[in-house]
Design brief:
4 domains, Beta Polymerase, domain 2, alpha/beta, Beta Polymerase, domain 3, DNA polymerase, domain 1
């Protein structure tokens, strides 16, 4: 029988979110539903220890958490149970949340499926789709059924993978917990996490120590650990509360550089490394170097850090993000590896939202948060009018926002603050490739982000033509989230990315690297191609609240995987430089 989940910030927020979804399925009052959704956001974003405050009944005065919600959170934090949630949850089958996790199925459609066909889990949904019953329901048709079946298949094929953004916090927590152990000398997170892969199957931790038994014991006692799957003399595997597997290897100090290289991977990179070592008469594994049979007289170099492995092979050091065997060895051999972009190189960013559309913070709050991060400028790109679901701005509201931004910038100037807000818009690319605003409106903005938010089922030729037409508009500065993908939830729409890159190169259009960990779009596998064709990247968090400005870290990680340098990224320019660039 599964143990109760640990009572954490995420547990409190997730419970409120799930309660809101269940109440929506029941057709409850919209204001009540919104109160629980907003409460979940407040819990996630609260800067203090919200769990301890909830346990102590000390939530009064926190905006967004009224007296009724305070009582519910206190009960949840104290006992792990919320009576209202348990009551409502019991009215639905166990698989109901699996349905809500499918792309294209919101609570309203799930409600129809449940009430009309008693569909309460993925198997029953698949059966109902294949029998034709779903297609007969109002609001559903042949295309809807096809899309649902595709979503079920997509989810099944990615069942045990996790987005990078979903594991960063727990990965750092476990790393820091391991570092607390007095016998842990060196501690690193290895594997696909270290390489910055956008999704991963597990976490790999590596520790050097002379006392592996005590380090392993310490690891298995970490708070996020729900179950110990395997425990040996030098390794352990555990299952975390979110279902993620975490593996620990403990090695001697002398073996650490070899183990770090080996367990970082990728497999293809490691194969090439071992082959190059064999050419020198040496066998490489996670424990060290030894002469191969018949080469016993070969000198074995003393390697004290991972960098030394590359130096011995006559190679420049290959950063972990590049270790995919996609040309890094050739570049390392001839001295042409790029000096990769660093987070501190960013001076500003462009694609961000406020309360004017579907954001949670005002212009002033977003600006203050950007200043706190050390940025010189922050671009505001609220949705345009066709994104009605996101409260998109019409022409009048957009022009008013431009004027408001100008006033705020005047205040910054009067206060001696060198930071500035930039006026932009995330303009919908309509089905025919035209834009949601006329050129006369777009010309009043500092920049324009053009994005697709609807009609995503066009075939590749039509979608590519649609995007190219938008790219060719002289007012479009950059293309937003190029493929529309949502990692582990929604596949990219059909589009010829190579042709889009060519169109951007021909028109001087920037391509966004959307740093939201659900997107990370354009994919890192295309960035070297774009870079080599002279296309600039803009790393944008697509922030809808102040905390999401920190998504820039994910964007930089993906840019590094894409071989991007400082000079390849538009928002490494200073405020003065970016003003000149935008005015060109």
């Amino acid at each position: 029988m599964p143990s109760d989940p640990p009572i954490t910030r995420d547990f409190l927020a997730d419970t409120l979110d799930r309660l809101a979804m269940l109440l929506e399925l029941k057709g409850e009052n919209a204001f009540k539903i919104r109160a629980y959704k907003n409460g979940a956001d407040v819990v996630r974003e609260f800067s203090g220890d919200i769990v301890e405050r909830a346990r102590a009944g000390d939530l009064s005065g926190i905006k967004g958490i009224g007296s009724a919600l305070q009582e519910k959170l206190q009960a949840l934090a104290t006992t792990g149970k919320m009576p209202l949630y348990e009551k409502v949850r019991a009215e639905f089958p166990d698989g109901i949340f699996d349905l809500l996790g499918l792309s294209g199925l919101g609570p309203k459609k799930v409600k129809v499926l449940y009430e009309a066909l008693e569909v309460g889990d993925l198997p029953s949904l698949k059966k109902a789709c294949e029998s034709g019953k779903v297609g007969d329901l109002p609001g559903f048709g042949k295309k809807s059924v096809e899309k649902i079946l595709e979503s079920i298949e997509f989810q099944a094929s990615h069942a045990e993978r996790f987005r990078l953004g979903d594991v960063v916090a727990v990965a750092r927590e476990l790393r820091d917990f391991l570092r607390l152990h007095p016998e842990a000398n060196q501690v690193e997170i290895a594997g696909s996490y270290r390489r910055g892969k956008e999704t991963l199957h597990d976490l790999d931790f590596l520790v050097s120590s002379g006392d592996p038994e005590s380090v392993i014991e310490h690891f298995t006692k970490a708070e996020p650990v729900e179950k110990v799957e395997l425990r040996g003399d030098t390794k352990a595997s555990v299952r975390l509360g979110n279902g993620l597997q975490a593996d620990l290897r403990v090695v001697e100090n002398a073996a650490f550089p070899f183990a770090l290289s080996y367990f970082t991977g990728s497999k293809a990179h490691n194969v090439e490394m071992r082959g190059r070592m064999r050419d020198r008469g040496l066998s490489l594994n996670e424990y060290g170097l030894t002469p191969i049979e018949g080469k016993e007289g070969v000198d074995v170099p003393k390697i004290e850090e991972e960098r030394g492995l590359y130096e011995f092979l006559g190679l420049d050091y290959v950063e972990p993000e590049l270790r995919e065997n996609t040309g890094e060895f050739e570049a390392a051999a001839d001295g042409t590896l790029p000096r990769l972009i660093e987070l501190e190189n960013l001076r500003g960013t462009f694609h961000n939202h406020t309360t004017a559309s579907d954001g949670r913070n005002s212009l002033e709050e977003m600006g203050a948060a950007a200043i706190e991060l050390g940025l010189e400028y922050l671009g505001i790109a609220d949705h345009s009018k066709s994104s009605f679901q996101a409260n998109g701005l019409d022409e009048e509201r957009l022009v008013a926002q431009v004027a408001e931004i100008e006033k705020i910038n005047q205040n910054y100037e009067a206060d001696g603050e060198k930071f500035r807000l930039l006026s932009g818009s995330e303009v919908d690319i309509l089905k025919d490739g035209s834009l949601d605003f006329d050129d006369s409106i777009l010309a009043q903005l500092d920049y324009v982000v053009a994005s697709v938010h609807n009609a995503m089922t066009l075939d590749e030729a039509a979608m590519t033509k649609r995007l190219v037409k938008a790219i060719e508009n002289e007012h479009v500065t950059m293309l937003g989230h190029l493929t529309g993908r949502l990692l582990l939830k929604r596949e990219a729409y059909a589009v010829n990315v190579g042709k889009i890159i060519d169109a951007c190169a021909a028109n001087g259009t920037v391509i966004e690297l959307n740093a939201n960990p659900w997107r990370l779009d354009m994919d890192w596998r295309w960035w070297k191609t774009a870079r080599d064709k002279g296309v600039l990247c803009a790393i944008n968090p697509d922030a809808h609240r102040v905390q999401q400005l920190e998504y820039l870290w994910f964007g930089v990680k993906q840019a590094r995987k894409g071989w991007l340098r400082r000079e390849d990224v538009l928002n490494t320019k200073s405020l003065e430089e970016i003003r000149g660039w935008l005015d060109r």
